[in-house]
Design goal:
- By secondary structure, this protein is mainly beta.
- It contains 2 helices and 12 strands.
- A hairpin with a 2-residue loop joins strand 3 and strand 4.
- The longest helix is centred in the first third of the chain and has 7 residues.
- The N and C termini lie far apart (35 Å).
Length: 218
């Protein structure tokens, strides 16, 4: 199993495609909409909940939306999508190995109140090529199981902002580190439906008749 780290400049929190309009425009043909708490990492017992995440699954890809708290005001954070498409699920806690695919979507800077919202869309199909920095491996090069895969959504800290490194600190794995210290500090795990076991997120709804999931879910 290989780890895949891919930087996606596809859509960000300010992008044109959000979870809600993906449901309306791009999520036809059967959708599953689920939510999961965002927790502090390393995980505690019981987990320390700091936010909420929503994940929309369709045959065409996944849409995601994360609202979180507890960040350092003004500091840069990158946002990651970790994917496990193995036939037998091996996924551990959010943001922790093993995951076959790792992709970063443009992050951002925490608000004065220490909050941030990350949203985006990852289409099924061919992944970007390896570039050695934000793309380190792409396994077989495809994301082909958006409904069945385990999906972990994670927030990564890059320390205080460094002038001239704003992009790297919000879009790459080690942007600003060193001199800063980078670490994955928050995560949310969405368990997928795998062929043969019928399991998945307990709060996910599926609608294969009109392509609409539960858009009123809390």
């Amino acid at each position: 199993m290989k780890a895949i780290l891919v930087a996606l400049g596809l859509l960000t929190a300010t992008g044109s495609l959000t979870v809600s309009n993906f449901l309306h425009d791009g999520g036809r043909g059967g959708t599953r909409l689920g939510s999961a708490p965002v927790v502090l990492l390393p995980a505690t017992d019981p987990p320390t909940v700091v936010g909420v995440s929503r994940l929309l699954r369709t045959d065409k890809g996944i849409g995601f939306d994360v609202e979180t708290t507890g960040l350092m005001p003004g500091n840069p954070y990158s946002f990651w999508v970790f994917i496990d498409e193995s036939p037998v699920s091996l996924a551990g806690p959010p943001g922790v190995e093993p995951f076959e695919i790792r992709l970063t979507v443009n992050g951002g800077f925490a608000s004065p109140g220490g909050t941030q919202r990350f949203s985006g869309f990852l289409p099924a199909g061919v992944l970007p090529p390896v570039n050695g920095t934000s793309v380190t491996d792409v396994d077989d090069g495809f994301f082909d199981d958006p409904k069945g895969a385990n999906i972990s959504l994670a927030v990564r800290s890059h320390g205080p902002p460094i002038a001239g490194m704003e992009y790297d600190q919000t879009n790459t794995l080690f942007g600003g580190c060193p001199p800063n210290t980078c670490e994955t500090i928050q995560g949310a795990l969405h368990v997928g439906k795998r062929q043969g076991n019928g399991s998945g997120d307990d709060d996910e709804d599926e609608d294969d008749d009109d392509g609409h999931g539960d858009d009123d879910e809390d």
